[in-house]
Design brief:
- The structure is a single chain.
- By secondary structure, this protein is an alpha/beta fold.
- It contains 15 helices and 16 strands.
- The longest helix has 24 residues, at 157-180.
- It is globular and about 60 Å long.
- The structure holds S-adenosylmethionine.
- S-adenosylmethionine is lined by residues 140, 146-147, 149, 192-194, 225, 227-228, 251, 253, 289, 291, 320, 322-323, 325, 328.
Length: 445
Amino acid sequence: MASILKENDDIILAEAYLYKDGALLYHAAFNSEEILLESNNEKKLKKTLVVKAIHNVLKKHYNVEPDYGILTGVRVIKILITAKNNSKSDDEINRILKDTYEIKNDKIKLLWEILKIESKYISAEQNTKNYNLYVSIPFCPSKCSYCSFTSFVNTKEDKINVYLKSLIYEIEKTIELALKKDMNLNTVYIGGGTPSVLNEAQIDLIFSSISKYYDLTKIKEVTFEAGRPDTLSREKLECLKRNNVSRISINPQTMNEKTLNLIGRSHTIDDVIQKYKLSKEIGFAINMDVILGLTGEDESDVRNTITEIVKLKPENITVHSLSYKKKSELMRETQEMSKDYDLMAKMHEIVNEKCQSSGYAPYYMYRQKNIKGNSENIGFTLPDRECIYNMIIIEELETILACGLGASSKILQDKVRHEPVRNFKSLEEYNSRIHEIINKKIELL
Ligand SMILES: C[S@@+](CC[C@H](N)C(=O)[O-])C[C@H]1O[C@@H](n2cnc3c(N)ncnc32)[C@H](O)[C@@H]1O
């Protein structure tokens, strides 16, 4: 990777990534809110012109038309939200999206469709007294080849129990702090890793640390990432139900058996279907994660994946584009990096058409660095079944108090500013230095 041009040390105007096949993907980079918010600022305007000039040269030279033009930020919808909060008209916003950022028309349409769904939550939900509790369970049954999340594989039960002791201490201290500040718990999200590697006693322990303070039947959304079907049993699902979990994720990533082996997942497609049916029988809203652009997959594989998933009718489908993570096995072992703009665009088109014609609508989206085809991740939902937590975290609508290894809190200081608190990423540090994180939370709250 090379930075073509830097302004100061911290703002990179353009970056180029050289791929294995010799092709170059570039980003003409922006902090996405800058132009809309400060379009009269001369320095920012100059920067815009420089980035656009680089963009135009690279676009012609490499013969690519990135869907999102010069934009590289993660939170695209937030640009629209911020602009609207700053009284920009829809026409004005459209002009900037099209002419300044050079976003393609079908993507602009997608952004407005998403904003339409999010809008009902933005006005109704945004509340500086609300908070959302995230709990991190950084353990997995095996590592997926594309993954770089902090997660430990095949961890012994006693080591997990030591972690849970610190985690429960952090959860209780965090909730006590929120209660002291008169904050209201809006949603709960237990994520990972793969939280469903925990046994029933461990799951009960986590939920009892929350239900000590709150009646979870009154919390509008309690999500538990049960990612891998091979970690689920009737007993475990009933335990989640008893603990008032309302929404779980069962993630196939793909519905093609040949790919599951390649990406290091130790379950079959049949496991996905059986555990899905069992979970529905017990009574959960279900999300299913898929990834487009997985090694060896083409349009027909993606068509098969989305057709099979839509047949199951989960409430939510989260469609990721493969993102190349430096620390993943995929990058370490194969150095695979392919741009595939056209293929990714077609895959998204197939998924979009199938979802929309089956009653799903896009309800949140975000982008990542090194994302295949320079595309995006999109969450689809059946009507009125959106995951509130996902919209809150992506659009930074409310405070997130996160507990556990690698978890990241975001504490809203007012409607615009928020302060991050990042937790330790090693088990040893997490277990021995948790009080430092709690002190940081006290300071910021
Ligand atoms: C935090 S991960 C948890 C996954 C869960 N442990 C499982 O095995 O299903 C959440 C989701 O992020 C997506 N994801 C993770 N790494 C990715 C990558 N490199 N590119 C695209 N999507 C990725 C996957 O779809 C995954 O289900």
